[in-house]
């Protein structure tokens, strides 16, 4: 299971269309995605090991659950993280100056 939390870095960006990918999946067809606790359907498999999510720039919490067979390594976000139950919540670290955008 992978948790991804997004936010709008600027007011001007809020609401604009965006997308991102999750790679190294054992079976993209077996993935389920929720956004803010509801089923999320605007994603698609884009490779044998990857999906792409189409969303908007805003505050969201995505949960990506794989149908990986037993023994397959779990998805892990490696960065600064907070614990949320047995899962991990990815929280990107801010660079010096407090902004991550141009």
Question: What would the principal axes of the Cα set say about the shape?
Answer: elongated
The proportion of residues forming helix, as a percent range, comes to under 10%
Strand order, biggest sheet? 4-3-7-1-9-8
Report Rg. Answer: 14 Å
Order of helices and strands: EEEEEEEEE
Please summarize the sheet with the most strands. 6 strands, mixed
How much beta, percentage-wise?
35-45%
Number of domains: 1
Work out the helix count: 0
End-to-end CA span:
31 Å
Supply the helix-strand structural class: mainly beta
- Poorly predicted regions are 76-87
Mean pLDDT: 78
Q: Give a count of the beta strands, DSSP E runs of length 2 or more.
A: 9
List the helices and strands and how they pair.
Blueprint: E1 2-6, E2 17-22, E3 32-35, E4 38-39, E5 43-47, E6 50-56, E7 60-65, E8 81-84, E9 87-90
Parallel strand pairs: 1-9
Antiparallel strand pairs: 1-7, 2-6, 3-4, 3-7, 5-6, 8-9
Structure description:
There is one protein chain. By secondary structure, this protein is mainly β. The chain has one domain. Helices cover 0% and strands 42% of the residues. The chain contains no helices and nine strands. The strands form two sheets. A six-stranded mixed beta sheet has the order 4-3-7-1-9-8, with no helix packed on it. It has a three-stranded antiparallel beta sheet with strand order 2-6-5, with no helix packed on it. A hairpin with a 2-residue loop joins β3 (32-35) and β4. The chain starts with a strand and ends in a 12-residue tail after the last strand. Mean pLDDT is 78; it is low at 76-87.
